[in-house]
Known about the structure:
Helices cover 45% and strands 5% of the residues. The chain is mainly alpha-helical. The protein has one domain. It has a two-stranded parallel ribbon. This is Amidohydrolase-related domain-containing protein. It comes from Phytohabitans suffuscus. InterPro entries: Metal_Hydrolase (IPR032466).
Amino acid sequence: MRRHFRFSTAPTEAGPTSTLERSLGWLRTEDALMFATDYPHAHADDLTQLLAAMPETMRAKTMSENARHWYRL
Length: 73
């Protein structure tokens, strides 16, 4: 599954920060999550909450590096 699938940040519907942190831990990798806006659909997602819940090393990967690697850009 790790070789063929990636997860997006939208829609998040994260709930409490502790739940979000636990969910990020279940991924067991910093390479499986990629930023997505889900535009033009409007969601009340709080990207700052998501970024705050993840380890600092995962933030840049999620926001750009994982997509670059996945799409070979």
